[in-house]
Amino acid sequence: MTVTGTGTATIRVRLFARYAELVGRTEAAVSVALPATVGDVVRRLRDEVPQARALPERPLAAVNLRQVKLDARVQDGDEVALLPPIAGG
Amino acid sequence: MTVTGTGTATIRVRLFARYAELVGRTEAAVSVALPATVGDVVRRLRDEVPQARALPERPLAAVNLRQVKLDARVQDGDEVALLPPIAGG
Amino acid sequence: MRNAELNEMSYLTRSTISLDALLAEVSSAACGGTCVFLGTVRDGPDEHGVTAIEYSAYEEMVEAEFARLVADADARWPEARIAVRHRLGTIPSGEASIAIAVAAPHRAEAFEACRFVIEEVKRRIPVWKKELRVDGSATWVDPSGRPTAHPSDLHA
Amino acid sequence: MRNAELNEMSYLTRSTISLDALLAEVSSAACGGTCVFLGTVRDGPDEHGVTAIEYSAYEEMVEAEFARLVADADARWPEARIAVRHRLGTIPSGEASIAIAVAAPHRAEAFEACRFVIEEVKRRIPVWKKELRVDGSATWVDPSGRPTAHPSDLHA
Predict the structure, then answer these.
(1) Is there a domain that residue B48 lies in?
(2) What ipTM does this complex have?
């Protein structure tokens, strides 16, 4: 059951490959006021972490191991990943 | 250079798989009056070799290791093969 | 150069096919994608106890026709590197009767050329199969892949 | 049953991929056709001296996404048996980064399901590549397969 929730959510943000190099770290924790979307998390990260401005404004993203659009909702405790263009194989 | 030729040609006929079983042999030599086609060779074989009547009248055929139609010409010394339906692989 | 190399050897074998050897033949620094097809002797629900298939061939023509077939594939996919081996004799269920390996700079060519080769094999390589069953019967396989209505024991 | 078996193990490895192990996973008496795809690290004329590619991944998501991808393929080709392994770490030119094996009763399904899996890998499995060159430079590869204009040494 999904509860939209109010208050503040703490989101673990993970960065990979070129994005991790650009930002100089592989993860960050950001707080967002609920309700919030993945796009809000990206904006918050870019505001709070200086080098995160180097990230695209609309990166490919996943929540809890699943690709989502930037308007997908996040909950407290979610893991949001920002994924550089996939080069699998 | 292909010479159509006249006179008599001796053709080596080879039989494989089910056709060899039907006829009870894997090869035969037949003589045909030139000019002659692969179809003539098949008819001659069916006339001369008793069990060859069990072969289809219009089998798949090859001359000198290459599939041909039954109206292809044959020369003295050619090898004609009668091929059951191919089940390669 | 590859074709010259291949022509020195046979497309046919009577032993187990070595996939490693085939892959070594096609591998190249310039090729990022390799597609392999293995045809194996099947004993599925439609086969009713096939223990092995006896493969026979018009061997001289198989060699000549494979050379032409590989040349045709080379012409369509000039950057593809192709190796193929067909096994003859009695092949037990589960073992490979044919292996095709195609390496290419990009995967689309590898898949397409590999598929082309197996489809052409089915169409033009003069090989025949007799299914040997657990009950001792033997049946020629027709080109559709299903046994014919001519059990060999009627003619053997 | 197969999926349960696969779920006990990882789709990822840091060692050389064993094609034999993959083929053993999919082999079945009912399957007459097996299609394999190998993606190998290329050092072709466009690559300018690539000695290796460093593969990194969002590993937990790779496992979850591969499970979903294989389930999608199972749904489309219910008779196909699918095994896939992706290698991570530094992979030298010529060695395989991914291997996919699909066995099926008939070859069309094997080819189609194998092609589907590699196309979906390219689209949805979160893996990234950094090309390491003979001159010491390193470049992230963009999804089109060509290096990006962002050499990593600017950001390292």
Answers:
(1) yes
(2) 0.89
Give me the domains of chain D, ranges plus CATH numbers.
3-141 (3.90.1170.40)
Structural domains counted in chain B:
1
Residue A19 lies in a domain: yes
Question: What is residue A63's predicted lDDT score, i.e. its pLDDT?
Answer: 98
Q: Is the pLDDT of residue C75 over 90?
A: yes
The confidence score (pLDDT) of residue D76 equals: 98
Domain for residue B18, yes or no? yes
Tokens of C146: 């299903």
pLDDT of chain A, 89 residues: tens digit per residue: 455 567 999 999 999 999 999 999 999 999 999 999 999 999 999 999 999 999 999 999 999 999 999 999 999 999 999 999 999 88
Best of C107, C109, C117, C119 to mutate (most D CBs within 10 Å, chain D): C107
- The strand ranges marked E within D58-105 are 81-87, 89-92, 96-104
Among residues 23-52 of chain B, which lie with CB inside 8 Å of chain C?
none
| Residues of chain B under the 50 pLDDT cut | 1
Q: In what helix (H) or strand (E) does residue D74 lie, and over which residues does it extend? A: helix D59-76
CB of A6 within 8 Å of a chain D CB? The answer is: no
Q: What range defines the domain where residue A77 resides?
A: 8-83
- In whole angstroms, how far apart are CA C88 and each of C6, C42, C127, D122? 19, 16, 9, 38
Phi then psi for residue D68, to 5 deg, are -70, -40
Report whether C91 contacts B27 (CB < 8 A). Answer: no
In chain D, the residue whose alpha carbon lies closest to the alpha carbon of A14 is D58
Q: What is the mean pLDDT of chain B?
A: 94
Number of H-type helices and E-type strands within chain B: 2, 7
For residue A26, being part of any structural domain is answered with yes
CATH number of the domain enclosing A21: 3.10.20.30
For the entire predicted model, the pTM comes to 0.89
CB-based burial, D134-150: b 16+ in 10 Å, e otherwise:
eeeebbbbbeebebbeb
Q: Do D59 and C124 meet the contact criterion of CB atoms below 8 Å apart?
A: no
pLDDT digits (tens, 9 = 90+) for C42-71: 887 777 789 999 999 999 999 999 999 999
Confidence of residue D98 (pLDDT cuts 50, 70, 90): very high
C-alpha–C-alpha distance, residues D13 and A77, integer Å: 29
- Cα D19 to chain centroid, rounded: 12
Residue C103 bridge partners (DSSP): C34, C81
- Within 8 A of D51 by CB-CB distance, chain C residues are none
